[in-house]
């Protein structure tokens, strides 16, 4: 990899292991403290697949040296990091939920209403328009696919640094989201409103039902074992659906013919979050703000890294012998 951007991206790629290791360490400690267990087969298989991608990337980089293909390295390596991150943060959110701090649903609902955005009329409006409920349900599920698509799209378009900044910003946003959710736990708007799913027959409330079941199970002690592929999104504030939508839009915006479409789809995901995910409006606002702050922090780190590199090179350059006119 002789390209300057690729070398910078390689440095960021290594940096991105730090939040992954940090969150993984918290998960290990949290499982020990809370007594929660992870079903080992699915979890081990997932980590093995991710590790295979990472090993292939590192072997290619080490074996080929400067002739290594950055597209192969960053697509496989970053997909591996994404899989590992997702495998960690899902169970980690359950560890945070196990802390059992008082639920803040009524507080969050009061904030929404103070803003003039009562969630009940919004939900009933969507329920009265089944076509809209169907679109929002499909939009809410868009959170998964960009996690694998973004590394491929950005490497194919040689945006290696942007890909690593996206990964760094996403890791920061996830870590902060889980930390806040432990202190501000909530179940969702339908819980605060005491609104049964039967009252909203045309809205897909399966997501809410899953988070209700698991949060209550964590609190009453009936949930002991976590199955990776059956975990629900139990984080209410801030909404990581909203945060991820902003992160996806930022990552793909410069890509011609894709950026605009990605923005439209992710705006739909944000619109779906309060209804399908039963999030409060303040959850969505918090997620958007968190994503913006994480992107800013990742870009600020890159600027600092580049500035440090320029300063370290400058003395060496000035020390090079320059012939005088007299000579």
UniProtKB/TrEMBL annotation:
One Pfam family assigned to this protein is PAP2_3
Residue ranges of every copy of the Inositolphosphotransferase Aur1/Ipt1 domain listed in the record = 107-296
Keywords from the UniProt entry: Membrane, Transmembrane, Transmembrane helix
**By its UniProt entry, which Gene3D superfamilies does this protein fall under?**
Phosphatidic acid phosphatase type 2/haloperoxidase (1.20.144.10)
Q: Which GO terms describe its cellular component?
A: membrane
Domain of life assignment? Bacteria
Q: Which InterPro entries match?
A: Aur1/Ipt1, PAP2/HPO_sf
Ranges that cross the membrane: 12-29, 41-60, 72-94, 142-161, 168-193, 228-251, 284-302
The question of whether Membrane is a record keyword is answered with yes
The entry's protein name is: Phosphatase PAP2 family protein
Species of provenance = Bradyrhizobium zhengyangense
Q: What is the lineage of its organism?
A: Bacteria, Pseudomonadati, Pseudomonadota, Alphaproteobacteria, Hyphomicrobiales
């Amino acid at each position: 990899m002789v390209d300057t951007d690729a070398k910078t991206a390689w440095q960021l790629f290594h940096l991105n292991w730090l939040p992954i290791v940090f969150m993984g360490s918290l998960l290990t400690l949290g499982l020990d403290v809370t007594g929660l267990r992870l079903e080992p087969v699915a979890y081990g298989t997932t980590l093995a697949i991710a590790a295979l991608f990472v090993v292939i990337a590192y072997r290619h980089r080490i074996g080929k040296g400067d002739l290594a293909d950055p597209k192969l390295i960053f697509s496989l390596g970053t997909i591996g990091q994404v899989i590992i991150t997702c495998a960690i943060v899902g169970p980690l959110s359950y560890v945070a939920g196990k802390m059992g701090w008082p639920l803040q649903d009524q507080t969050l609902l009061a904030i929404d209403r103070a803003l003039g955005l009562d969630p009940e009329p919004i939900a009933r409006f969507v329920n009265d328009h089944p076509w809209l409920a169907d679109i929002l349900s499909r939009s809410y599920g868009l959170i998964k696919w960009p996690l694998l698509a973004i590394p491929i799209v950005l490497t194919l378009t040689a945006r290696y640094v942007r890909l690593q900044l996206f990964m760094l910003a996403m890791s920061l946003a996830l870590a902060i989201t889980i930390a806040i959710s432990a202190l501000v736990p909530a179940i969702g708007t339908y819980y605060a409103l005491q609104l049964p799913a039967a009252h909203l027959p045309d809205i897909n409330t399966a997501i809410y039902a899953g988070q209700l079941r698991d949060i209550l199970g964590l609190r009453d002690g009936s949930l002991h074992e976590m199955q990776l592929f059956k975990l629900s999104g139990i984080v209410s504030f801030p909404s990581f659906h909203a945060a991820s939508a902003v992160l996806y839009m930022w990552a793909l915006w410069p890509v011609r013919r894709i950026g605009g479409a990605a923005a439209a789809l992710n705006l739909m995901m944000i619109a779906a979050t309060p209804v399908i995910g039963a999030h409060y409006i303040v959850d969505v606002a918090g997620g958007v703000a968190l994503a913006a702050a994480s992107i800013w922090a990742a870009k600020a780190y890159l600027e600092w890294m580049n500035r440090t590199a320029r300063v370290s090179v400058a003395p060496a350059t000035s020390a090079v012998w320059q012939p005088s006119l007299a000579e």
